[in-house]
């Protein structure tokens, strides 16, 4: 599954939220320095979708706020179900 997320680094609290327009926003406590925010993003998404960290890859946008993340072992239906359980921002 390919997931497009908007990342907010240096947030006061980490979390994943689905916006009213359906986009996914991920708040990270780590700063975007030396890959710390990307590492936190991978860990947070792996925990939310119930897959190992190695199954989460940043396919595009490693240095941008909008990232395309590939989730291995997750089909579109299961991904939509997980996103539906997340808090709406």
Mean of the pLDDT scores? 93
Low-confidence stretches: none
| Straight-line distance between termini | 22 Å
Q: In the CATH classification, which architecture applies?
A: 2-Layer Sandwich
Quick one: how many beta strands?
A: 5
Strand order of the largest sheet: 2-3-1-5-4
**Class computed from helices, strands and strand pairing:** alpha+beta
CATH topology: Conserved Hypothetical Protein Mth637, Chain: A
Q: In DSSP terms, counting alpha (H) and pi (I) runs of 4 or more, how many helices?
A: 2
Identify the CATH homologous superfamily: YggU-like
Q: What's the number of domains? A: 1
Strand content: 25-35%
Summarize the amount of helix as a percent range.
25-40%
Q: Can you tell me the CATH class?
A: Alpha Beta
C-alpha geometry:
globular
Question: What does the main sheet amount to?
Answer: 5 strands, mixed
Rg, rounded, reads 12 Å
Element pattern in H and E: EEEHEEH
Write up what this structure looks like.
This protein is α+β, with helices and mostly antiparallel strands and about 90 residues long. The protein has a single domain, classed as Conserved Hypothetical Protein Mth637, Chain: A (2-Layer Sandwich). It has two helices and five strands; from the N terminus they run E-E-E-H-E-E-H. It has helices at about 35-50, 75-85, and strands at about 1-10, 15-20, 25, 55-60, 65-70. It has a five-stranded mixed beta sheet with strand order 2-3-1-5-4, with helices on one face. A hairpin with a 5-residue loop joins strand 4 (about 55-60) and strand 5. It is globular and about 35 Å long. It starts with a strand and ends with a helix. The model has no long low-confidence stretch (mean pLDDT about 95).
